[in-house]
Amino acid sequence: MKITLIGSGKLGTHLYKAFSTSTKIELVQWVNRSSKEHKTNEGVLLNNQWNPKLKSDLILLAVSDKSIRSISESLPKDSFVVHTSGGISIDVLSQKRRGVFYPIQTFSEGRSLDFSNLPIGIETENSLDLENLHQLANSINASAKEINSEQRQQLHLAAVLVNNFTNHLFVEAAKICEEKQINFKLLLPLMRETVEKLNTLEPQKAQTGPALRRDQKTIDYHLKLIKNPQLKKIYTLFTSAIQKNNDQ
Predict the structure, then answer these.
(1) Which of 36, 38, 108, 194 is most buried (CB neighbours < 10 A)?
(2) What is the largest CA-CA distance in the chain?
(3) Of 130, 155, 154, 125, which Cα lies nearest the Cα of 144?
């Protein structure tokens, strides 16, 4: 399968690494608007703009949500164009052959990710293109899951809750530890178990802590310890939400 990859941010770079090492994919060009034209160490042509002379079976847009529509409109109408966004509908693409290839994962600089068995939400408007996206996922040993735009947007919301919001709590916890010269990594086994037990328990059953126990003495003491007014609000809001959720 011949692929053109547009975008060189965190996701684009991870996809490039996965595609360029796959024996089932020919990456004909990688488009990075801020780069001069050259060949990468893997022999892939890196362009600062899309070259229409380099034909591909699929053009994959690993770009910001706000750029998807304009880039799609600049590409041929008869191309098979696919975006990678979790929160944007397939309808934003102007091509008749269009699709979504949404890796359900967080991507950071300096991290090497294995795509093996990584779930990827896919969507197209015909069965042949859907099979092409199954093959694309298979080429990097990922696991394709067929979901429509409405489901994917809800899944993206859920992903923000479990990843982005949770990581913000990690940031706040790290600040508390740093302030008292405590090694934040002491919390890593707890964080791992919090996630790993979800393999056998429903989230509702996995809930623990002073809010669930209605341990008001501990709750009040924690609120006394918290100096950041915003974090105090978050703690209070989460405590109330946990208690209301477990009243049902």
Answers:
(1) 194
(2) 70
(3) 130
**d(Cα 229, Cα 223) in Å, to the nearest integer?**
10
Domain 2-147: assigned CATH number? 3.40.50.720
CA–CA dist 2, 30 (Å, integer)? 12
Q: What angle do CA 92, 7, 4 make, to 5 degrees?
A: 85
**pTM given for the model:** 0.91
CB-neighbour burial class of residue 193 (10 A; exposed 0-12, middle 13-18, buried 19+)? exposed
CA distance 137 to 103: 10
Nearest to 83 by CA among 107, 99, 106: 99
Distance between CA atoms of residues 221 and 236, nearest Å: 12
Question: Cβ neighbours of residue 248 under 8 Å, at least 6 residues apart?
Answer: none
**pLDDT tens digits along 29-43:** 999 887 778 888 888
Q: Where in the chain is the domain with CATH 3.40.50.720?
A: 2-147
CATH of segment(s) 152-245: 1.10.1040.20
pLDDT at 111: 86
Backbone angles phi, psi at 3, to 5 degrees: -125, 135
E-assigned strand segments in the chain: 2-6, 26-31, 38-39, 45-47, 58-61, 80-83, 97-103, 119-124, 143-146
Weakest-pLDDT range from 31-40, 78-87, 121-130, 206-215? 31-40
If one counts every other C-beta atom within 10 angstroms of the C-beta of residue 30, the result is 26
